Amino acid sequence: MKENFIFRLRQEKGWTQSELARILSVSEKKLAKWENGVGFPNVKTFELLIRVSGKTVTELLGQEGQDEVLLEAIAIYKGEIKMRNRIIVTLVAAGIFIMIFLLDAMDLTGFVFLCLPFLISLIGITFLFTGQQQKRKKSKSLWLFVLGGCFLAYPLVFYVVFLVIVPFAYGGPVPT
């Protein structure tokens, strides 16, 4: 088996697979795949690998052919980010168009009962995703999770209050 640069680094530092996997915050299975030449670490993990090794990219890779693999991995990672961003923009634009159509097609009451809870849920989901990204960056993100949870819980509370509690406060459902 041809020695992989990750395997060489691990041997030089005297680390076990589990120790290096813990340092890089990846599973041992994923690290083993990289060492066997199946896959490649993403850019952020590769940057961490460079930092913990104390080497330059060229020193870490050590072989000519590896530079092409790194450039290919970076291109794939950037392509994944662009695709994800396109999907997000498309979904947001579709949501806005749907909301505009629904607002035009219904009165204010319909908008408040149908569209507003949905929009507030989307805001909650946005806060949760942002909190997840901040958590990965080791930033303070608890308030984003709390706010996201509150925004996600709003539609449930809204419907329970207006469709269950309020009718019972006025005498409950009328028997037929």
Concise description?
80% of the residues lie in helices and 0% in strands.
Q: Judging from the principal axes of the Cα atoms, what is the shape?
A: elongated
How many helices? The count is 8
Oligomeric composition of the shown chains: single chain
Q: What is the string of helix and strand elements?
A: HHHHHHHH
Q: What is the arithmetic mean of pLDDT?
A: 78
Distance between the termini: 79 Å
Backbone CA Rg: 25 Å
Number of strands: 0
Helix content: over 70%
Based on secondary structure, the structural category is mainly alpha
Query: What percent of residues are in strands?
Result: under 5%
Poorly predicted ranges: none
Major sheet characteristics:
none
Explain the overall architecture:
- By secondary structure, the protein is mainly alpha-helical.
- 80% of the residues lie in helices and 0% in strands.
- It has 8 helices and no strands.
- The termini are far apart.
